[in-house]
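Proteins fold reproducibly. Look at a sample protein:
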Amino acid sequence: MPPAVAAFTDTYLPTVNGVTYTIASWRDRYAERGGRMDVVYPASSHDPSAGEFPVWSVPFPFYDGFRLGVPRVPASVTDVDLVHAHSPFLLGIGGYRLARRESVPFVVSYHTPTSEYAEYVAPDSLSGGVAALSGRYEQWFLDRADLVMAPSEATTEELRAAVDDSVPVRAHPNGVDVRRFAPTDPADFIERHDLPSDRPLVGYTGRHGYEKNLGAILDAVSALDVTVVFGGEGPATSELRRRADDLGIDARFLGFLDRDELPAFYASLSAFAFPSPVETQGIVALEANACGTPVVGVDRGALSETIEDGETGYHFDHGDTQDFREAIERTLDERESLRAACLDRRDDISLERALDRLEAAYDTVLESD
């Protein structure tokens, strides 16, 4: 039987992002395999089911949708074989305390660099200092892990250079639910959201953070006969709307989409555009591929390996608008062959593969404890 796990996270349902998706998906599939994965998270409007343990929390004042939970361990979270933290913040500290109190292994998944949040909590004049301080804290936290898991080889190499040599760092892709994210007919979605059906759709969905460089999409398509479709919201949404208006681009902002709508959203696109240079994996790129949609992504960070040029999409050079535009045009021209290559890759990026690797990682850290 798989080991009993207590997962600690500072972001969880109903907030939808890569971290919450990964944790919820892993928990469900782990249970299907006969395992127990409790989740401790900041209390919110989410109605907990068995094995979900909310702790008292307050809204995070600098970023809508995030909450700060007290770093405590609910009394009901007992008899665990290991602790798995998905954040270095308050709930991550709670997980570390439980692991040390119970003398069980402490595993950390590295999802997002803490420095990304600096611009949300400090003015521009101070954000550099805050980012440096958060980086030192992040290293301190990771140095206390018995295993650090990163979702890509690129991120893994960065972490190996940063954390103590005694801490093992392993690449562990989060996986995509290919049962949910599969080819589908997008006609109803296109009609429901009043999207054009006579021209290519180039889109993105996810958090609209400034660090994701989403305005580059608008610059790249300004000379193309396409419609841009944005799913999701965030601090940069208002600026994106203004920029689209200034450039005279047909851009549609759909807001947060129900998870059940995402396969049709991806399937409606001729190309998924992803200019973010800060991704640790870029789960939305893999979701798009699983639905048969190629990705045009920046050749930086995890996206350098997530996208296979000429197979699942194309790369472009960061900051090069012309290169981005040409990569989009190339993708539109090769849409059908890229779609076939994306679908051939579905098993490799599946949750099932990710859970196989997760169980193996847990076994390894327990054996070495």
